[in-house]
Amino acid sequence: MWPNEAVDFTPWLAENIEELAEKIGMELEVVGQEVSVGPYSADILAKDVNTGDYVVIENQLEKTNHDHLGKSITYASVLNAKTIIWVATNFTEEHKKALDWLNDNTNEELTFWGIQIELWQIGEDTASVRFNIVSKPSSDVKTIKKKTSVESESSKIQLQFWTKFKEKLLETKRFSKLQMPQGRYWYDIAIGRSYVHISNFCNTWKNTVGVRLYIDNKAVESYFPALLARKAEINQKLGFEPTWDANPAAKDKTIAVQADIDFSDSQNLEKMLDWMVVMTLNFYDVFSQEVKAL
User: Domain tally for the chain?
Assistant: First the structure.
């Protein structure tokens, strides 16, 4: 199906990146193919739409070898990528263990995926592609592990909150994939545009939670004035008026709604989780349409 890895397979994978992205639960946007890294070139450089972080994808239409493992780590370090996806037709046990070891012994921001690619054909039907995960980041290790030996209490609360939030959001059947919960202040949801996303927050210091449309400073000039010009129409669609430009001093801009929460009260916690889901869907429905229309 792909006589040559560089000429045939890499372009195919770049064009069909959604298939790979869906398998690992990410939303990927291709930045370039055969991206120059000194005297070498990375097969595919992509971007995680949720976070804006770079993703290096290294391909092998053969059994894995040390050369490609070393290249992928080199490319990621030079390009400041947070994720490595190694695609190959066959993974040796040693290379699978190497990826597992990297996932378990690097910080929570770095993730390593080993993906085996297969072709399946029944009779004379067109061959279909199957991606099999042979190594992936451990959610328990990656979301809890910190550089320090002591994990903060707020981080534990946030991890538990986002884990329950993700479960409730998936129950709505509105999203097929969501990012991995982590013990941190925010939880992002993509709306189909780079540098603009839904950014939910959980503030354990002020005991508040909320939902924001978050516009990175790289996209502020393109989006925020245009959205502000439609403020009345957007407020009407939402059914209420959120706080526009909640932090005027910041270069990044937000449109937000928030509420108080008692993390020690299980009934209040459950109520606020349900409120977060409703508000997230409301923000997603309104702002995904508004942003895409600009």
Answer: 2
Residue 148 lies in a domain: no
Pairing mode, strands 81-90 and 54-63 = parallel
Q: Which residues contact 172 (CB under 8 A, 6 or more apart)?
A: 277, 281
Task: Kindly give the residue spans of alpha helices, DSSP state H, lying in the chain.
Answer: 10-15, 17-24, 66-79, 93-105, 139-144, 153-171, 220-229, 231-238, 266-293
Q: Tens-of-pLDDT digits for all 294 residues of the chain?
A: 888 888 889 999 999 998 898 888 888 889 899 998 888 889 999 988 777 789 999 999 999 999 999 999 999 999 999 999 999 999 999 999 999 999 988 877 889 999 999 988 887 777 888 999 999 987 644 544 443 433 467 788 999 999 999 999 999 999 888 888 988 889 999 998 888 999 999 988 889 999 999 999 889 999 999 999 999 999 999 999 999 987 777 788 999 999 999 999 999 999 999 999 999 999 999 999 999 998
In this structure, is residue 128 part of a structural domain?
yes
Q: Which domain does 39 fall in, by range?
A: 5-143
Domain assignment of residue 91, yes or no: yes
pTM here is 0.53
Q: Which of 82, 110, 143 is the last residue of a domain?
A: 143
On whether the CB atoms of residues 59 and 45 are closer than 8 A, the answer is no
